[in-house]
Amino acid sequence: MVSSEKTAAACPAHAPSNHPEIAPSRIGVLLANLGTPDATDYWSMRRYLSEFLSDKRVVDHPRWKWQPVLQLIILSFRPFKSGAAYRTIWNMEKNESPLLTITRDQKDAISARLRAQYGDQVMVDFCMRYGNPSTKSRVREMVAAGCDKILFFPLYPQAAGATSFTANDAFFRALSEETWQPAARTVPAYFDHPAYIKALAASVQAGYDALSDKPDILVVSYHGMPKRYLMQGDAYHCQCQKTTRLLREELGWEKDKITTSFQSIFGREEWLKPYTVEEVTRLAESGKKKIAVIAPAFSADCIETLEEIKEEIRESFEHAGGEQFTYIPCLNDNADHIEALCTVIDENLGGWVS
Predict the structure, then answer these.
(1) Rounded to an integer, what distance in angstroms lies between the CA atom of residue 293 and that of residue 222?
(2) 174 and 212 housed in the same domain
């Protein structure tokens, strides 16, 4: 928690004795991930899904048209289905989602690394775009702790309107409510950063090394988005394709050993293709009986990887005749990933710290 990192506030030098105490100047690094429900019951899921699906960056239909459908139809049944899915992956020991557990672990590891480098000059915390801890609450705590500069870091390697940019929106809204507003920076997409690509390749190599029978092909599955977003100028699709290419080059593989697809389709319109659930079926039917799947768009394992890939997509592959399905986990809090994230942070703190 931020409160455990606070330095004692004091009255400024040369100020009157009745001047409000002010915390020493610090720099905040605020990590941001997608979000998580507080619990798996109907009302917790409904609150979370309502916030998520009401975001214009996620569903851009006119509010007057979308909200009645969302509130009266979708949220009448979707929380039950989503809650059941979350219960299959829930961290029962801590009574929270794996995404929350992993993001906290990432924060702790990054905080330790930056503290060793910068001392108390830099403090680190995390927030969620939807659910808790909220972006607003974390910004408020950082400002109260003396942060006059905040580096906001959406943990999405490839940037998109429904991920990095809506996280930035929430950050800027939180800043707009502060009486005294700190200087702010946001970290851009880091999908082609050499440290990230090396960490990604190392995780693939480790996954393959642990298998006696090597996969015929690696499926690189990214979260999907409506195709029209690409046509409107969103660079996400291009960044995903480049991530796959850079990963293949780092591994030194031929093109036929790796393929790109997109998952988590929602609604009736066309999304980026090929769809992962259909691609794994096609691979199995074409003779690729052993596959591995990795999800580089996620910095931490979550419902889309632990339930959708490891259960739904696996079932599609095996139903089509697939024999060996290997899921390579997200980079989570492994050492290579933490070092890569810290390298990106160091670069974006340029001019703020020595």
Answers:
(1) 10
(2) no
Distances in Å between the alpha carbon of 298 and those of 42, 78, 139, 158, 345? 26, 23, 23, 9, 18
Q: Is 287 left (phi over 0), alpha (psi -120 to 50) or beta?
A: left
What is the number of structural domains in the chain?
2
Structural domain contains residue 354: no
Q: Is residue 33 within 8 Å of 96, Cβ to Cβ?
A: no
- Report the pLDDT averaged over residues 182-194: 98
Q: Do 209 and 291 fall into the same domain? A: yes
- Does a structural domain hold residue 103? yes
Q: Which two tokens stand for residue 147?
A: 């942060």
Q: Which amino acid is at 1?
A: M
pLDDT band at 220 (very low <50, low <70, confident <90, very high): very high
Is 31 in a helix, a strand, or coil?
strand
Contacts of 76 (CB under 8 A, 6+ apart): none
Q: Which residues on adjacent β-strands are paired with residue 127?
A: 32
Note the pTM of the prediction, 2 decimals: 0.92
Cα dihedral angle (130, 131, 135, 139), rounded to 10 degrees?
180
Are 129 and 205 found together in one domain? no
d(C-alpha 113, C-alpha 143), whole Å: 22
Note if the bond before 274 is cis, omega within 30 degrees.
Answer: yes
Alpha-carbon gap, residue 102 to 312, rounded angstroms: 22
Please tell me the distance from the alpha carbon of residue 346 to that of residue 114, in angstroms, as a whole number: 9
Residue 8 has pLDDT above 90, yes or no: no
Query: Is the alpha carbon torsion for 21, 27, 29, 35 positive or negative?
Result: positive
Q: Output the pLDDT for position 354.
A: 75
- Please tell me the distance from the alpha carbon of residue 288 to that of residue 205, in angstroms, as a whole number: 19
DSSP 255: G
Question: Rounded to whole angstroms, what are the CA distances from 295 to 4, 63, 165?
Answer: 34, 32, 20
74: left (phi over 0), alpha (psi -120 to 50) or beta: alpha
In this prediction, residues 138-158 reach a mean pLDDT of 97
Instruction: Give tens-digit pLDDT for 279-319.
Output: 999 999 999 999 999 999 999 999 999 999 999 999 999 99
